[in-house]
Amino acid sequence: MKPKFAMYWAASCGGCEIAVLNTHEKILDVDANFDVVFWPVAMDAKYKDVEAMEDGSILLTLFNGSIRNDENEHIAKLLRRKSKLLVAFGSCACEGCIPGLANLSPVGDIVHTAFNTITTDNPHGIYPRTSYDVPEGELHIPTLAKALRPLEQVVDVDYYMPGCPPESHQIAAVIDLVVKVVKGEAELPPKGATIGVGDSTVCDECPRARNVKMIKEFTRIQDIAPVDPTLCILEQGVPCNGPATRSGCNARCPQAGAQCIGCYGPAEGVMDYGARLITAFSSVIDATTPEEIDHILDGIPDPTGQVYRFNLAGSLMKANKSAWEKA
Amino acid sequence: MSDQKQERVGVYVCHCGTNIAGTVDVVDVANWAAEKLKHQGVIIAREYKFMCSSLGQELIEKDIKELGLTRVVVAACSPHLHEKTFRTAAKNAGLNPYLVELASIREQVSWVHTDKVVATAKSKAVVSGAVSRVIENRALDEIKVPINPNTLIVGGGVAGIQSALEIANAGFHVYLVEREPSIGGHMAQFDKTFPTLDCSACILTPRMVEAGTHPNITLLTWSEVTNVAGYVGNFHVTIKKKARFVNEELCTGCGICQEKCPKKVIDDVYEAGLGYRKTVYTPFAQAVPNFPVMDKENCTYFIKGTCKACEKFCPTNAIDFAQQDQMLNIDVGNIILATGYDLFDARRVSNYGYGRLPNVFTSLEFERLSNAAGPTSGNIVLRDGKTMPKSVGIIHCVGSRDKNFNNYCSTICCMQGLKFAHLVHERTGATVYNFYIDMRTAYKAYDEFYQRVLEEGTLFVRGKVAEVTDAARNDREKGKLIIQCEDTLAGKQRRIPVDMVILSSGLQPRKDAKEVGKLFGISCSMDGWFTEKHPKLDPVATMTEGIYIVGCAQGPKDIPSSVAQGAAASARVLDKILQKEVSLEPIKASINKEACSGCRICNGLCPFNAIAFIADDMVSDINPALCQGCGTCVAACPAGAISGTGFSDAQIMAQIDGLLLKNLEIGNY
Amino acid sequence: MTDDTFEPTIIGFTCNWCSYRASDLAGTARMKYAPNVRLIRLMCSGRLDPTFVLRALSGGADGVMITGCHPGECHYIEQNYKALRRFLLLRRVLTGLGIEPERVKLVWASAAEGAKFAAEATAFVEEIRKLGPLNWGKADSGQQTVDHEEPSTVHRPSSEVEVPA
Amino acid sequence: MPQMTDERVRAGMNREEDPSLLHEVSMKTAGVSHLEMCIQCGTCGGSCPVAMDMEHTPRMLFAMLRAGMREEVLRSNTPWLCVSCYHCVVRCPQEVHIADVMYTLKGMAIKAKLYSDSTAPHFSQTFVDMVEAYGRSYEMGLASRHYLRHFPLRLPSMMPMGLGMITKGRMTITPKKIKHLDQLKSILHRAKQLELTS
C-alpha cells in the first residue's frame, strides 16, 4: 500500500499550488509513490472524508497558506491530527507572507476596505454576516480572526519550506527525499528543520560585487539611472532585503536586476527577520547626527512594510497594536 | 528551550549587612527563588550576611563541590565590584568562572529604592533575570597573548621623557617619537617653573640628554606615527621619519651650518613668534638631538635652486639635499601617548585685543620674553623691544571656564599668572595687577607661592575682565591699555590703565587629537582630551588594552602631575612586560563562516579593524585578538552569522524573559 | 484611559562603561528613582540588537530605555552612533506597528552622570505611565472572532520621530 | 508582583516646587535663563555701559537673588537702567540670559509696586503706549510726554538736543505709523491675554 499524501490551500494566493505543478514530470512521482487522499485544488474530496481517516494515517501533508479564519484553523488542526509529517509549505504557512500585512490594520478596517471603497460596487452597503437564517436552517461562512497567523502559531509543524512560492526544483528535491525515506534509502532531517533552502542569505548566491557600504541616500530602484548591473544593489542605495533573507532562490531578483524583497524569510536561527533588516539598513547609513540620519531614513517611505513584507505575522510583534486592541 | 540536561543552579542572596537587608527582604527573595525558579534548575538558594567574606565564598565553594552546582547566581552588589571575587571562588571550586552571574540588588535596588515591598519584588525580578541568563552562559577560557618587550612612546615632552627613562632604566627598549626637531616639549620654552622658580632648562636638560644618550632609547625626532595595527603585546607601528636633509651619521652638531645660513625666518613654534631662526636650525641651544633640520619651505636652495651655503661650510659633508622621508616599521608591546596640549588661541577672545593691541601678550610669548635665552635675553619689555612697562595687568582664565570657549578649568593658569606677576615684579618693579575669578592654588607649596606674590605687592582684582581697550576716556588713560572689569569685591566697575597685558591662556587638546585618537583606537572626551579608563582609579590606562595616556594629552595639568603620570604609565607597561603574556577577557565576537553570506555589512562597523573580508571565500572573518568585544557586529549581522561570547543573544534573550518573569511557569511560552 | 494602579514595567539596556556605571553611581550616592526599570548590562549600546527591544515589548514590557555613552565619548570609539542609527530606524518600524515611539527612549549618560541616570529613569517611568500599559504580552493569539462594523482610523507609519539631542 | 509605588521617590525629583527667589525668577524668565549657573565673575558688570549709574551691578543683583533679598532686588534701579545692549549676554561665560532676567525683574517690580523711582516704569509704559498707537517708537512724543509729566522745568534745556536730532534726521516731528497696525494690535492683544492666564 502506498503512503498517503495531502495538500491544503488556506489563506494564500494559490501560487504554491502552481509551483507544485511546475515541477513538471516530477508530479508523476507523487502519484507513483503516494496515494493522494486530499488535495482540494486537484481532486474532489470532502472534509468529512478526512475526518473519517485514522489519526496519523497521512504520511505527508503540504500545508500552504496561513490561518485567517476559523475554517483555516479547523482544517489545520484536522490535518495535524491525521498527518505524520506536516510541512508548512510556502511563505504564507511559514511566516504569514503578504496576507500577513493585513495585520497592520484592525480586521474591521480590512472588511470595510473590501466592501466600501470607491471601486467597490456595493450600493446598499451590504456587509457579510457570519451566520444567516434561511428557511432551511442557519447558514455559516467562516469567521475572520483578529489577526492572521502562520501555521506554527496554531499547530505543531514538522518542517518548513519557505518561498513565495518555493522554487519548483526544491519541491522536486523534497519529494525525492521523502520517496527515498519511504524506501528506506535516506533519513529525515531533524524535526523543525527548514528544508529545500540554503544555510546562508541571498547575498551568498548573489553574483554582484560588494564593498564596504556607506549610504548617503536611500532610493527606489526605478529612480536610479543607470543601475549598475554588477554592483551590490544595497550599495547603490536601494534597500535590498538580500542580506537578511535566507538563500535558496539563487538570488533570482538581484540576478534579474531587482532588489530582493525577502520571500524566503529569515536565515537559520534568526528570531526576528525585521530586526535583522533594521540593523542591516542602519549599519550602512553614513551619518552621525539625528537630523542627517533621519533625512536618510526618509528614503525608506514604509519602513515597517519594508522589513516585514513577508514576515509580519511570524515576527515577534505579530501585528499592529490596533489589530490586537480593536475587535 | 534547551534539550540538554538541566543545569544545577545555586542562588546566593547577600544581606550586605543592612545595605541590602535593610530595604530588601532577602529571606523572602531566597525562598522565592528556591520555589519559583526550581523548574529552571535552582536546587539551592541561600542568604548570608556578607557573601563576599571568606565564609560567604566558602559557602559557594562547598555547594559547588557537594551539590554539584553547574551555575551560580550571586545577588549582591554591582558586578563591577565583586564579579571577580565570585568568579575566583567558583574557579577554586573547579567551576568555570564564567558560569557565575551577579545580580545587582544593592546599587540597582536597595540603595535607590525605599519601599521594602517594591524593592523585594524588584530583587526577585533581577534574580530571575540572572538565573535565566546564567543557564545560557558558556564556559570560557581567558585568552593569553605574548607581550613584545619593546615600547613606543609618542611625544617627547617632560611626561614622555619621564616614561621613556623609567622603562629604559628598567632594561627594556623604548622608541621615543617626537614630531618636532628636538625633544623637550613646552617645558623647554619656559624660563622658570612654579612654585619653586627652578630654571626650567636647568632641570629639564639633564633629563633630555639622558634620554638622548640612553642605550635603551631609540630617539626618533622629526618623526610621526602614520599607522598602528595589532593589539596589546603585538602592535605593528609605521613611523614616518621626515627628511632632515642632514645626515645624522655624519653630523657632529657643531652648528656651523646654522651660523652660515643666510636666511632668517620668524620662529612661530619655539619662540612663539617673538624671535627668529635660520632655515637650517636646531630650535634651541640645548636641543636633543643636536642635529639641525632643514626647513624645506623656506630654504633658498629648495626655492631657487641656489645657495647651498650650509653644504659648503659643513666640515663633515653632512648636508644631504637628496634625503627622502623614511618609513620605519617597528613592533612594540605597549604604547604610551604623551602628545601634550596646544595653547588656547587668545585671538578668539576678541575683547582682549590680542593680535590687535600690540602690548597684549600671550603666556607663551611672555615665557620667551622672560627667558634669559629668549629673544630679549630675559628683558621684559613692550612690543617695541625696549620700553620697560611701569604697570602690567595679568588676566586669568583666558579661554577657560567659559562656555563660549572651553568650559573646563585649565588648572595651571592661576599659578602661571602668579609666576608672571613675580617675574614682572622682580625684573621690572612695575605695578602688577592680577585679574582672577577664583584663585586656584591647590597642591604642595602652591598657596604659599600665592602669599609670596601678595607680599610682593601684586594687586589682586577679583573679576573676569570684560575688555582691554586703547580707547582712552581721560588723560590718565591716554596711551595706555585700559582693563575694564567689575571689581566684584568692591562691587564697582573699574577701568585700570596699564602698559602691558599678559593673558594667562588656557590649554586645549592638540588640534589633531581626534585623528590621533582614531589612529591609536582610543576615544576623546567631549572637550577633546583622551579618555582614561577610569577617571579616578585608572587614570593612565585607556579602554584599548596596551595603550596609555600621560601628561596633558589626558587633560590640563602641571609639570609634577605630568611627570607622575609618565612614571605611572611606565609602571603599568613594565608590569605587562614582566608578565610576558597578558590575559584578555574572553568577550569576543566570531563569525560562523557557513552562515556568512559575505554581504560585508559588518565590515564598516568595527573601529578596531578586527573584521576582514576574505575575498577568496567571500566571507568575513574576525581577528579575535583585535576584537574588543563591543558586540556591535553581533547585533548588526543580518544573517545572524556573528555570535558573541559573554553576551550572546541566548543570554540576553533569556535575561529579558527572566526580568519580565516569563519563566515562572514550567514549559514553553 | 488612565489607570491609577498601573505600574509600568521597563527594561533598560545599559552600556557597561558609562550608563551602567552611572546607575552604580546613583546607587552609591543613594539617589532615589522609580523602581520600575530593570537593567540589562551590555558591553556597549552598539550591542543592542533591535530584537532585544521587540522581545521585551512583545514579552510584557511597557517601555524600553536604551542608554549609552555621549556621542564622541564611546569607549569603543564610535559604536554609540551605530546604536543611534538603529534606534532611529527601529522607532520608525515600531511606529508602523502602532507602538507609540515614546515607549522606546535613547538616553546618553556618562559614568559620572548618576543623577542624570536617576532623573531620566524616573521621567521615563512617568512618560510610560501617561501612555498606559502596552499589554502586548497579554495580546491573545488572534482567535477571537470579529464584528465587521466600525472602521478605526487607519494607522500609517509616521516619519516624525523625536530624537534626543 | 506587588504594585511598584514609591511616592517619596517621585516627590523627591520635583524641582518645580523649589521655593527660592532665585528659582522663581529663573522660572519666570522666558526660555532657559541659566541664572543658577552664575559664577559671580563680574563679566556682566565689567561690560555694562551703564554700570556706573546702577545701584547694583547685575552680578551683585544675582548674588542678592541667591540671598533671597526680594525687596532690595525689586527696589533696585538696575533693571530700569539696563539698555538691553546684550553686551553682558554675549560675554557671559556661563550663558546666563542676563538681559532677559532684567525684563523679568522689571515685571516683578511693577507687580509688587516696589520700584523706588516711578519715572522708570512710567517711561516704559509711555514707550509701550507709543508702540501700541503707532506700531513703532515715536521719540518726539515720548520725550515730550515724559518730561511734561515728570520734569516740566527741564524741558527747555532739552530743546537744543531735540533740534539737533531733528535737523540730522534722527527724530521726526510727527509720528509715523506702520502698515497693517491692526495686525500688530491683535498680536499684542493676544500676548496680553496669554500673560494674564500664565
| Rg from alpha-carbon coordinates of chain C | 17 Å
Of all protein chain pairs, which has the greatest interface, and how many residues does each chain bring to it?
A-C, 59 and 48 residues
What oligomeric state is this?
A: heterotetramer
Stretches of chain C where pLDDT falls below 50 for ≥5 residues? Answer: 141-165
CATH class of chain C: Alpha Beta
Explained architecture:
The complex is a heterotetramer of chains A (327), B (669), C (165) and D (198). Chain A has 13 helices and nine strands. Chain A is of the alpha/beta class and 327 residues long. Chain A has three domains: 4-99 and 148-182, Rossmann fold, CATH 3.40.50.700; 106-145, no CATH class; 202-323, no CATH class. In chain A, strand 6 and strand 7 (137-140) form a beta hairpin. Chain A has helices at residues 15-21, 26-33, 47-52, 70-82, 91-95, 107-115, 168-182, 202-205, 252-255, 273-283, 290-297, 303-308, 321-325, and strands at residues 4-9, 35-38, 58-64, 67-69, 83-89, 131-134, 137-140, 144-149, 159-161. Chain B is α/β, with parallel strands linked by helices. Chain B is 28% helix and 23% strand. In chain B, the strands form twelve sheets. In chain B, strands 10-7-6-18-29 form a five-stranded parallel beta sheet, covered by helices on one side. A five-stranded parallel beta sheet of chain B has the order 20-27-21-22-23. Chain B has a four-stranded parallel beta sheet with strand order 2-1-3-4, with helices on both faces. In chain B, helix 1 crosses helix 5 (116-136) and helix 5 (116-136) runs antiparallel to helix 17. In chain B, 53% of the residues are buried. Chain C has one domain (10-134): Rossmann fold, CATH 3.40.50. Chain C is built from four helices and four strands. Chain C has a four-stranded parallel beta sheet, with helices on both faces. In chain C, helix 1 packs across helix 4 (114-131). Chain C starts with 9 loop residues before the first strand and ends in a 34-residue tail after the last helix. Chain D is mainly α and 198 residues long. Chain D folds into two domains: 1-116, Fumarate Reductase Iron-sulfur Protein, Chain B, domain 2 (Orthogonal Bundle); 118-198, no CATH class. Chain D contains twelve helices and no strands. Chain D has helices at residues 7-12, 21-28, 43-47, 58-66, 70-75, 78-81, 87-91, 98-112, 119-134, 139-150, 155-167, 181-197. In chain D, helix 9 runs antiparallel to helix 10 (139-150). Chains in contact: A-B, A-C, B-C, B-D, C-D. At the A-C interface, helix 6, strand 8, helix 10, helix 11 and helix 12 of A face helix 2 and helix 3 of C.
